[in-house]
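> example.struct
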């Protein structure tokens, strides 16, 4: 049984959360840290864009009106509004057996742990099969259509995950919406008019769901986090050792906030 670090970091702004993922990924890739599972959440709410997503998808005035942050992820995919959720990050060296192989192979391996945790909460999750070609043409919203092999309930997307790799390490992070109105994201994105925005909201709610919607109640963040920890240990044969960020990791996180994730040069790239 291998030992990984377990980090539960406090509520933080979007730029700090993304900077922390990168700082920890550097530490793991350089051999300064064992692999880890990080669990976290966001305050205030934050719209995150995928690495290559157009900055023009954002309605800046609406974002400011709601008091939501904006950040660009280091991973691909489409926009996610991070509110009322549990977010996870798996960070491991490129040769770690649990993330070896292709992106799809490693994702499906980690998805078994995610699904076990969700089932322990009473959620009848399944893995989406191969998505039809029509699903490849997506709008700006990550949860609009389940991609191949994502975690769904009755065909509706429940968990959105993305992966980024370099020659040293693998980062996979994803979000589990616990409660709230998923269509809120359409208020932060640019649409040609009101009817188009409303149509996008209706479409999203028909294709994605939250834990509260399925169960009729929302588990607390801590209950959901505990379920994920137990499932990762059992399904992946791990011991997760509770840990805090090291001082060097915190300092690197703050540096990345200032030089990258809170900087317009990064956020506004398209």
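> example.seq
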């Amino acid at each position: 049984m291998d030992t990984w670090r377990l980090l539960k970091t406090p509520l933080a702004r979007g730029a700090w959360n993304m900077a922390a993922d990168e700082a920890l990924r550097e530490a793991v890739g350089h051999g300064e840290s064992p692999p880890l599972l990080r669990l976290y959440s966001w305050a205030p709410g934050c719209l995150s864009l995928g690495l290559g997503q157009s900055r023009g998808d954002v309605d800046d005035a609406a974002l400011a009106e709601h008091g939501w942050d904006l950040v660009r992820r280091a991973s691909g995919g489409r926009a996610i509004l991070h509110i009322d959720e549990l977010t996870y990050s798996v960070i491991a060296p490129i040769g770690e057996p649990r993330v070896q192989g292709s992106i799809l192979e490693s994702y499906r391996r980690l998805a078994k742990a995610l699904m076990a945790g969700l089932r322990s909460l009473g959620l009848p999750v399944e893995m989406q099969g191969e998505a039809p070609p029509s699903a490849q043409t997506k709008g700006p919203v990550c949860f609009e259509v389940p991609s191949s092999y994502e975690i769904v309930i009755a065909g509706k997307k429940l968990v959105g995950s993305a992966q980024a790799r370099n020659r040293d390490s693998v980062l996979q992070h994803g979000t589990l919406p616990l409660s709230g109105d998923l269509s809120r994201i359409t208020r932060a994105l640019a649409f040609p008019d009101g009817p188009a925005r409303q149509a996008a909201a209706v479409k999203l709610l028909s294709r994605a769901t939250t834990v509260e919607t399925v169960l009729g109640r929302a588990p607390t963040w801590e209950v959901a986090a505990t379920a994920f920890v137990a499932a990762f240990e059992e399904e992946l044969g791990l011991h997760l050792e509770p840990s805090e960020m090291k001082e060097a990791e915190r300092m690197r996180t703050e540096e990345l906030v200032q030089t990258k994730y809170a900087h317009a040069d990064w956020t506004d790239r398209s």
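> remarks
The chain has one domain: 2-262.
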